[in-house]
Design a protein that fits this description.
Blueprint lengths: L1 E4 L2 E4 L8 E7 L5 E6 L4 E4 L8 E3 L5 E4 L15 E6 L6 E6 L11 H12 L10 E3 L3 E4 L2 E5 L5 E5 L18 E4 L13 E4 L4 H4 L8 E5 L3 H6 L10 E3 L2 H4 L7 E3 L16 E6 L8 E11 L5 E11 L8 E6 L4 E4 L6 E5 L8 E3 L5 E4 L16 E10 L4 E11 L35 E6 L3 E4 L4 E10 L5 E2 L1 E8 L4 E3 L6 E3 L8 E4 L12 E8 L5 E2 L5 E10 L14 E9 L5 E4 L2 E5 L14 H12 L22 H13 L13 H12 L22 H12 L6
Parallel strand pairs: 2-4, 3-21, 22-28, 29-41, 30-42
Antiparallel strand pairs: 1-2, 4-7, 5-20, 6-7, 8-9, 8-19, 9-16, 10-11, 11-15, 12-13, 14-15, 14-16, 17-18, 20-21, 23-26, 24-27, 25-26, 27-28, 29-31, 31-39, 32-38, 33-37, 33-40, 34-39, 35-39, 36-37, 40-42
């Protein structure tokens, strides 16, 4: 039996090597695949498929790309790449690289390539068919297309010519190249027809009729698709001479999937180009496939092979996912904007039905307020995924992935009185003694979304102001609030002094020097004054608890060691000089702790599975990855830490037990490390898949809590 987990392919028996594996990976990452077995095996790549683009470690079974895969330039191609999909019910897609670039291997056939792309771009080749096939010689198409009338009758017509082009000889008609067809005796007569060289035809076609212009080649294992490894092979295809019936010798070598009589022939019998398009970041093609054959040899020289198909998925590099957090029990998420007038809509996503968006304003909301204790996301982990479409006046669409993380907030619940007892409300959190000497009911209270917030030096922190009252009164005249902070560590960030109000403020928030030490905290020197006023006595105008606003602070990098992250804790305190009439005020402090470790271990400002995650799990394996082995082909080109510093940085995360993600008191490679790299791979390890066979029996965190914990140490300060 073969098992695959996180690109680690395990063979439970030697005989199971005969099975095949199929893996999908995103472009832009040098994904590693590991083969393991219960036997001591030597690994090698057979001379098959796309071998030349991969490396394998004969001892460990580790496979990696020679170069990071690029969907738009598969197999390290340099010219424009065109995808063709045939009308077969098998895997009949292959790719052509055009020679529209300078190369020491091929001459630039820019004129011919541009001519070919004109027919591709206007769909002239769509539904065209290969009308000539000669085994061991050529497969020819680009001349005719099929269509049906209203009664279902099948007809063909010629592809409309865009004119003849100049011959560009010089590249050799070797096997797997494509060349232009032309009229005999006229070297400059090529229009739309082209052919694939099924063998080395250089001795003949390089010189005949001025030389046939070779302007591209079949990429990778694409010839396998043409010759029969992925579609019915040309050696098995029937050749039906329709010349007699269609009054033309051009169809004397017409290839058909099956031999049929003329009165029964249909479009399904022809070899038709079902879809053709030039690849770019907006391509409809979802993936490009690499084919490998892995050979494993045991100590007795017994060998078996394993076929591996790797699909590289197209990623829109121009747009990255927006990830951020909102608190439970509120419907507002974020208002999206662009630098042009657009109409917003929701496209896809696992949780698209949970959201609504205002098409004009871009205001995204939950249909129903989320409940942290009862996650409603598809993965049941409080991480909601959807895709937004922004459509401009010209009808151009831009797609943006949005991931909304719902976080917990303090919830006030009034207990039910027991018979014979006085009703008493015991708030949580309790008043802070150094801030409030005596509180008499009723009172207004403001707390942050959390009483302790970790931050990364140099990054923004965000917190929500959660408001309630001791008597559940939600119709008061307002509140004047002072948010105290240490300006040597934090300062309001963004417009409106960092205040994004969900309940309208009275005037703009202002920053004031706390010369009178109103919060009795010598470490704070400024406060942010925010006022809410409702003359009609309807504040805050909704159910309690309510979120009044979100605050954004930029943290300072000063005094923070880049390796240890050592810095003093800081606090944000809340006071008020103008609560509602007949009400006191209670404000609970927030402790801000510098995050001593995050998963951006190479310091490039990003967290990636096969960069940072791979280096973490390597470090946890110990001595096997000493020195440069830790960072080999994993460190980013724009890393700000050296290999030595990365060793030190991850070691600090181990020593501080930050990398003990399941909370069992120890840090292990195939426990904590495996869960880290799984989480960084994203949706593939949603829910229980994250912790499967990796979580310790002594874990103190649940699966949901582990998801949240790794997300927290992966956070670099972005927000929705």
């Amino acid at each position: 039996m073969t098992k695959m987990l996180n690109n680690i392919i395990t063979f439970e028996s030697f005989d199971s090597l005969n099975e095949s594996s199929y893996i999908t990976v995103p472009e832009g990452i040098n994904t590693t695949f590991n083969f393991t077995s219960n036997k001591n095996l030597t690994w090698d790549l057979e001379n098959y498929g796309d071998k030349e683009h991969f490396q394998i470690n004969s001892q460990t079974g580790e496979i990696r790309f020679d170069k990071v895969p690029d969907f738009e330039k598969p197999l390290d191609s340099k010219g424009t790449v065109v995808s063709l999909k045939l009308n077969s019910n098998t895997n009949s897609q292959f790719f052509i690289e055009l020679f529209d670039y300078e190369s020491p291997e091929f001459i630039n056939t820019e004129i011919t390539a541009e001519n070919f792309l004109k027919y591709v771009d206007d769909n002239s080749y769509k539904n065209s068919f290969f009308h000539r096939a000669v085994n061991g010689f050529v497969l020819q198409g680009g001349g005719f297309y099929l269509y049906e009338d209203q009664e279902g009758g099948l007809y063909y017509d010629e592809i409309e010519s865009k004119g003849t082009i100049k011959n560009e000889p010089g590249n050799s008609n070797t096997k797997g190249t494509i060349a232009m067809a032309k009229v005999g005796g006229d070297p400059n007569s090529a229009t739309s027809q082209w052919f694939i060289n099924l063998s080395d035809n250089s001795n003949n076609l390089d010189n005949q009729n001025g030389g046939f212009t070779v302007f591209g080649r079949i990429l990778g294992s694409g010839m396998d698709a043409i010759e029969g490894l992925e579609i019915k092979g040309l050696n098995e295809i029937e050749y039906f001479n329709l010349g007699y019936y269609l009054m033309g010798s051009v169809f004397s070598n017409l290839p058909l999937w099956e031999k049929v009589s003329i009165d029964k022939v249909s479009s399904n019998d022809f070899i038709v180009i079902e879809n053709i398009e030039a690849l770019n970041e907006n391509s409809l093609i979802e993936s490009y496939k690499y084919n490998l054959r892995v050979k494993a040899t045991d100590e007795f020289d017994n060998s078996l092979t394993h076929d591996l198909v790797i699909s590289v998925k197209n990623i829109d590099e121009s747009i990255s996912a927006i990830t951020g957090s909102v608190k439970e029990n509120t419907t507002a998420v974020h208002t999206f904007t662009k630098d042009e007038d657009v109409t917003w809509s929701i496209a896809e996503g696992d949780d698209k039905d949970k959201f609504a968006i205002d098409g004009l304003t871009g205001a995204l909301t939950f249909v129903e307020a989320p409940d942290y204790e009862n996650p409603g996301s598809a993965a049941n982990d409080n991480a909601y995924s959807l895709f937004l479409i922004a459509t401009d006046d010209a009808g151009t669409e831009t797609i943006q992935e949005v991931i909304v993380n719902v976080t917990n907030q303090y919830e006030t619940e009034e207990p039910q009185p027991q018979e014979g007892a006085e009703t008493e409300f015991d708030p949580d959190p309790q008043p802070t003694p150094e801030l409030i000497e005596e509180i008499t009911e009723p009172y207004q209270t403001v707390s942050a979304s959390s009483d302790e917030i970790s931050f990364y030096p140099g990054k923004d922190i965000n917190l929500d102001l959660v408001y309630t009252t001791s008597d559940n009164e939600s119709a008061l005249t307002g509140l004047g609030l002072k948010v105290h902070y240490d300006s040597s560590v934090f300062n309001p960030s963004g417009d409106n002094n960092g205040v994004s109000a969900l309940v309208d403020t009275f005037g703009n928030p202002t920053i004031i020097d706390d010369t009178d030490n109103l919060d009795n905290d010598e470490n704070t020197d400024k406060y942010l004054a925010i006022t809410w006023t409702d003359f009609m006595g309807n504040f805050p105008g909704g159910d309690l608890p309510a979120t009044l606003a979100s605050l954004s602070f930029a943290s300072s990098e000063s005094g923070v060691d880049s390796l240890t992250g050592e810095s003093k804790d800081s606090k944000i305190n809340f006071t008020s000089s103008s609560p509602a009439e007949n009400y006191d005020f209670l404000g609970d402090s927030v402790t801000l702790k510098p995050q001593t470790f995050n998963l951006d271990v190479d310091g490039n400002g990003k967290v990636s599975a096969l960069g940072d995650g791979l280096m973490v799990i390597r470090k946890l394996f110990g001595d096997a990855f000493e020195g440069d082995a830790l960072t080999d082909k994993a460190i980013s080109n724009d890393a700000t830490r050296t290999t030595t510093e990365i060793h030190q940085f991850i070691q600090a995360g181990m020593d501080e037990k930050v990398l003990d993600v399941d909370g069992d008191g120890s840090v292990t490679a195939l426990g904590d490390g495996l869960m880290v790299i799984r989480k960084l791979f994203g949706d593939a390890f949603a829910g229980d898949a994250l912790t499967d066979k990796a979580i310790s029996t002594d874990a103190t965190r649940t699966t949901i809590e582990i998801h949240e914990y790794i997300a927290a140490i992966s956070n670099l300060g972005t927000s929705v």
